[in-house]
Design goal:
single chain, 264 residues, mainly alpha, 11 helices, 72% helix
Amino acid sequence: MTLSKWLLFKIALRSFLLQASWNYRGMMSMGFLYSIAPGLDSIYEDQNARELAYMRHFEYFNTNPYFSSIVMGVTLALEEKYNNGDKLVNPEMIHDTKEALMTSLAAIGDGLFWDSWRPFVATLAIVFASGNYKLTPFIFLILYNIPHLYFRFAGIFWGYDDGMNVIRKLKQFQFPQIRQTLRLGTLVLLAYLIPNHVNVHTPFLLANLKLEYFYFGEKVVQGLGALILVTLGTIAYREKINVLLISFLLLILALMFYHWGILI
């Protein structure tokens, strides 16, 4: 292996521009080629060989941007082996490997970040915002980008050092279990938010509670509401009802309560 850690780090930085030039023909192809270009320049000293390598990667490419550096690392490792005369590696093998990785990582990454992590962090940010924390936007950005930056910068080294064996490393993360946990966490937070924004300053409570017990009664109602919604949501989740459907129903319920004057 000849590519330096600094060069790999530079490629990871360039991967932030992966989506800077979308096109109908190749999707992220231009961004992918731009990102790995310094690596190809280092591997291929011969100009003709370098141009052929450029053309190999000016093809269709589309995956989750946060996992793209893993594909870049594996691709550069294979290109280096091919340039060194490894008989097991050829342009067709590089193409097939790249295509298989981008497809699988697109499914894993989209499911993890778009479908699970982002809704969870957004809901958590709403909890902070409801408490009037002025730093809520920064909390959201920092929390959301911790795993993003970890996979983007670590992925290039995993892919380059481990090659196709990087799949074994990714299996250790148990992404399906993480997704399920995040989805359930999102559901619990949503169920918690609704009753904690209930407007209990109603004639019923005022008529049946002394003023000094009103605050306590308000918290009891909110706590019971949260417990009921979390319990119902958890039961629905365990019955294999889609989390997005449950979240949508909770949203409809909140809008109805707001219309009736129950929610603030």
